[in-house]
Amino acid sequence: MGRWIACALALALAGCAANQKTMSRDEFINTTQRSYEGVTEREFYQAAERLFTLSDGDDTTFAYPGEHSMVAQRNWMIYLVLSFTQGTHTWQIATEPTDTGLDATVYASIQSGAVHGMIGGRGGASTSTIPTMQNIVNTPAVYELFWSRMDYLLGKSESWPTCDDWKAKLRQGETYGLIEPLCLAANTDDLLPEELR
């Protein structure tokens, strides 16, 4: 039973569920790209750092592999009875300055695996590992949440969307897909910006 639960959780978190709907090329491009007027790259990346810090600052690290890019990496772990699942959410962000602001592109990927234990019939025990899997997130929900939060942090919106707001959208069929890279329930702080607390 523990093995089945760990396997199911690993598959769900990796977005590998059978027959999962995904975006077309045009949908992916439209969902993962935004243009911001009157925003500098410095302002954009400061807002992005704040976004990920509010989501889970203790487990997130940042890197800047180039002048116009950023990587945010978040490690997570979930313990179950006789098993645990662990993984990494990785966000890759790139910007390009324009005459009036910037164009931005973002995509997220999930890497996950699981270890489970089994109790033998004579009191012995053993462990088994489910191999690590990595998948690019090709569903819109988490990207829509990311951009909605960026809009707030960059002064383009007065509304800060919470994970509960997006879970409600999923239930109501207003969007679809994974939100775990920002809303993994057991490991996410999901803090409000300071001015809203």
Any overview of this molecule?
The protein is 32% helix and 36% strand. The protein has six helices and six strands. Strands 1, 2, 3, 4, 5 and 6 form a six-stranded antiparallel β-sheet that branches. Helix 3 crosses helix 4. It is globular and about 70 Å long. The N and C termini lie far apart (41 Å). The model is unreliable at 1-18 (pLDDT under 50).
SSE blueprint:
Blueprint (H helix, E strand, L loop, with lengths): L1 H13 L10 H8 E5 L3 H16 L3 E7 L2 E12 L2 E15 L3 E19 L5 E12 L4 H13 L9 H9 L8 H4 L14
Antiparallel strand pairs: 1-5, 2-3, 3-4, 4-5, 5-6
Helix pairs in contact: 3-4
Give short descriptive properties of this protein.
36% strand, 197 residues, single chain, six-stranded antiparallel beta sheet, 32% helix, alpha+beta, globular
